[in-house]
């Protein structure tokens, strides 16, 4: 077995399969739980919920970690910053023989991505996993900490129920530390702050000036929530604002795929067009220029039109007032969607329409977009579906919408490297 140090920023919480309701710190003091969770599958792909080991990369692992963290944080009612991964390990086992703990020092799959390693020596280990065939099993173990700062405010945690919520094979409780002074200081929440570079919009120098940042197959950052016009993917209450079948599922970075193989059907983690006017609007915080728009439909494809909104399309703190109307004519406008089910409708914007050939002047900013860029700066995308036939039992289900293009004068260019 090889242990791999997890990045300090990784947030993963895993589960407990043993029937436990572990005691909290004595006298109501904060308690730090150290746990090791075990996930088992026929391959790493089955653990990460993807089609094949070959597609596992750092983005897949990061999304998997973040999703587990969010689920556990919500289940245990603790903030995400009180859940921290410490290390990972891999075990491989063949059915009918004793367990083998193998060192996979150069594994160029998920854990190599987590560790930041890209060593070429991983290819042989990867082949060994891929060729293990019938009767082989892989286990992913993760050791992580969960801090409970308010044990008196709730009943003892039910780790069995947590296991059911997150789906690990088993979890070992390694120990509980009640030295509250050290714990609280270590896990203290960071002070609230605006997005990096937001001061630039108020006429101050940006922290890290960037003219533009390209992105590929990126989800939009914002959509309508339960209680407000727009919710951004990194808002602290994102999961509370998200509901099954609603537009925020098209913004949700850390969700699992609706299906592991080509399938048509309903999906709670997608947008389901269940009522008129059958329209969804996605928003961008930074002005963007789009090259392609890819719409994945997993039930009853029925995209009728795709229209662009000028930036900003919604109220954004520190940005100019929203602009009204549409940005030119629809980029897609058809009476019938012939996309197969499941299938992806890809809309490609002509280069002149996209604006990607326009130079980005060094003297410009989001607050003062040059006219040449203003004509193509997108703040939102409106997708309209055809109304279902009378009496139809099926509704259109959109699993995701991904964009390729570039952001203009991004306030935080790192958002486009995910």
Automatic annotation (TrEMBL):
Lineage top rank: taxon: Eukaryota
Signal peptide: 1-25
Keywords for the protein's UniProt record, in alphabetical order: Signal
UniProt protein name: Uncharacterized protein
